[in-house]
């Protein structure tokens, strides 16, 4: 007998329960972050806004729609972020961007992360929204993403001691309007170059502003450009509520460390975790990034349920599982080395005017190119990959 409780109803109750827990632990601002996360999950799912598939399609097939949509997202983000971060104040409260050194650890970490994207089947945001959307393979990727994140903290001091430029803010070094001009010019150059490359290879280019079959706000699918705009605006909303941009993977390291700490392992012996006993012992709902991650998964679950597409597949080929394990470990380890992932380092880093965001993009794309070459060894380009990989 089929259950009368539908996935959208379960998703709404889940969001309500998460909201109540977040409010009891940390108050109304945490509930707002949960709501922003939910909207991010819904947007990612309905627009199929996967960084992994976008870069794979461009590298392997010369299809540029996903990459061009990312440039739209980044252009809108810098227009929103740069003026605010230049002043350092938003609605009377201090705000800060995702600024980090651009050096060896960023280049190596982003390269490893790029390989992990293609083997694991998703990036940081992609892993969360596909798990919420019902991908059972991506649960494996997420578990090993968490494990890789903790392992990365063990070696972090050594990596961060390698040669690196100082933290460079383009708005601080160049001024607001020159920094805007440079970044918008680079986005235009990349977008036009990608469009031209696709045009030369295929004779036509895939649009990012419309979907075949029509688009519906609640049930999807959305045009990719809708997802680009939604992610930029919701990242800015994160800045308003959290006083810093959107990030994802620091929570994965925290979840893994909390598990090890609860099991009796002295995680605080690792320099990265020294002095964090309070952080490790208090509720996970006190962590802003964790609450947003819960929201992303629940929002994608709601979107998949409303669209009638929540249908987990429990049979996963062995080689796909091996790819998920290796990919997840590389994703977690690489993110810690690179001061973040495709969201915290690439998207929020570039939106913040940080040079390390651009370094991440170059190395991350190179890693994706390498990862595309490895995919056949794990049978990841077979038709059922689209069911389990998702991103």
Overall helicity = 55-70%
State the low-pLDDT regions, or none. 384-390
Count of DSSP-assigned helices: 17
| Oligomeric description of these chains | single chain
Tally of extended strands? 4
* Overall outline: globular
**Order of strands in the sheet with most strands:** 1-2
The overall average pLDDT, rounded, is: 93
Please state the structural category.
mainly alpha
Strand content: under 5%
Mind summarizing the main beta sheet?
2 strands, antiparallel
Radius of gyration, Cα only, in angstroms?
20 Å
Number of domains: 1
Q: Give the ordered list of helices and strands.
A: HHHHEEEHHHEHHHHHHHHHH
- How far apart lie the N and C ends? 33 Å
Offer a few descriptive terms:
391 residues; mainly alpha; two-stranded antiparallel sheet; 4 strands; globular
Tell me what you see in this structure.
The structure is a single chain. By secondary structure, this protein is mainly α. It has 17 helices and 4 strands. Strands 1-2 form a two-stranded antiparallel sheet. The protein starts with 6 loop residues before the first helix and ends with a helix.
Give a brief description.
This protein is 68% helix and 3% strand. It contains 17 helices and four strands.
Task: Please render the helix and strand layout as text.
Blueprint: H1 7-26, H2 28-46, H3 51-61, H4 65-87, E1 89-90, E2 93-94, E3 101-103, H5 104-120, H6 124-132, H7 136-160, E4 164-167, H8 170-174, H9 176-202, H10 224-242, H11 249-262, H12 277-281, H13 288-306, H14 318-337, H15 342-351, H16 355-374, H17 385-388
Antiparallel strand pairs: 1-2, 3-4
Helix pairs in contact: 1-2, 1-13, 2-6, 2-10, 2-13, 3-4, 3-16, 4-9, 4-10, 4-15, 5-14, 5-16, 6-7, 6-13, 7-11, 7-14, 15-16
């Amino acid at each position: 007998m089929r259950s009368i409780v539908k996935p959208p109803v379960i998703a709404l109750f889940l969001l309500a329960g998460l909201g109540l827990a977040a409010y009891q632990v940390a108050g109304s601002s945490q509930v707002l972050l949960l709501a922003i996360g939910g909207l991010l999950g819904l947007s990612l799912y309905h627009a199929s806004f996967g960084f992994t598939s976008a870069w794979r399609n461009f590298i392997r097939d010369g299809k540029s729609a996903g990459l061009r949509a990312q440039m739209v997202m980044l252009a809108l983000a810098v227009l929103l972020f740069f003026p605010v971060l230049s002043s350092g104040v938003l609605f009377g409260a201090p705000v800060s961007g995702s600024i980090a050194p651009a050096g060896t650890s960023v280049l190596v970490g982003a390269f490893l992360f790029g390989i992990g994207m293609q083997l694991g089947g998703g990036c940081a945001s992609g892993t969360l929204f596909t798990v919420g959307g019902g991908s059972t393979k991506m649960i494996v990727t997420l578990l090993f993403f968490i494990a890789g994140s903790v392992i990365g903290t063990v070696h972090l001091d050594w990596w961060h001691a390698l040669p690196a430029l100082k933290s460079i803010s383009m708005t601080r070094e160049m001024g607001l309007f020159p920094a805007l001009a440079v970044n918008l010019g680079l986005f235009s150059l990349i977008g036009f170059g990608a469009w031209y490359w696709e045009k030369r290879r295929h004779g036509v280019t895939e649009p990012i502003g419309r979907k075949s079959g029509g688009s519906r706000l609640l049930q999807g699918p959305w045009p990719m450009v809708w997802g680009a705009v939604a992610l930029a605006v919701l990242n800015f909303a994160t800045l308003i509520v959290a006083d810093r941009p959107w990030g994802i993977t620091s929570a994965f390291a925290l979840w893994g460390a909390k598990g090890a700490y609860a099991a009796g392992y002295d995680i605080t012996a690792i320099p990265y975790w020294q002095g964090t006993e309070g952080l490790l012992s208090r509720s996970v709902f006190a962590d802003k990034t964790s609450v947003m991650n819960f929201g992303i998964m629940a929002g994608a679950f709601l979107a998949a349920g409303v669209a009638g597409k929540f249908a987990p597949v429990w049979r996963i080929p062995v080689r796909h599982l091996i790819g998920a394990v290796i990919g997840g470990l590389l994703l977690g380890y690489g993110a810690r080395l690179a001061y973040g992932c495709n969201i915290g380092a690439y998207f929020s880093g570039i939106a913040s005017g940080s040079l390390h965001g651009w370094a991440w993009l170059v190395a991350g794309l190179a890693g994706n190119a390498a990862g595309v070459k490895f995919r056949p060894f794990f049978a990841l380009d077979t038709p059922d990959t689209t069911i389990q990989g998702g991103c």
